[in-house]
Specification:
Elements lengths: L1 E6 L4 E8 L2 E10 L4 H9 L7 E12 L1 H16 L3 E5 L3 H9 L3 H9 L6
Parallel strand pairs: 3-4, 4-5
Antiparallel strand pairs: 1-2, 2-3
Helix pairs in contact: 1-2
């Protein structure tokens, strides 16, 4: 299954597809106050069916505190559904934001092994 969602006025595009044992959500653009609800809605719709969700941030150009809140909200929702949420391919500024919020340890396993998607 492949699904695309967009918030064109604000510049966030989400493309969801199945990859092996996971649902991958490829995110492009800006994850900000204007767009964070789209990410939450799209990812939470995958639960409880998806036991492994991968957020691919390789094309995220900016993330603010609302975007960070959205990532944490979907992480908590995934845990409630006994699912795993992985964050991959995030840039240095997102890594710094996670570090400032003392949340890097939640996602650092992917960063340590430099997990990347094709």
């Amino acid at each position: 299954m492949s699904d695309a969602a967009a918030s064109p006025a604000s510049g966030l595009k989400l493309h969801t597809y199945a990859s092996k044992d996971a649902q991958v959500v490829k995110c492009s653009g800006r994850l900000t106050t204007e767009t964070s609800a789209l990410l939450k809605t799209q990812v939470q719709a995958l639960l409880p069916d998806a036991k492994r969700i991968i957020l691919d941030f390789s094309e995220i150009t900016r993330m603010d505190s609302s975007g960070l809140g959205a990532v944490i909200a979907v992480y908590v929702s995934a845990k409630k559904h006994k699912s795993t949420l992985l964050l991959v391919n995030y840039n240095q500024s997102i890594r710094d934001l996670l570090g400032l919020a003392n949340l890097l340890s939640i996602f650092e396993q992917c960063a340590e092994v430099d997990m990347r998607l094709p």
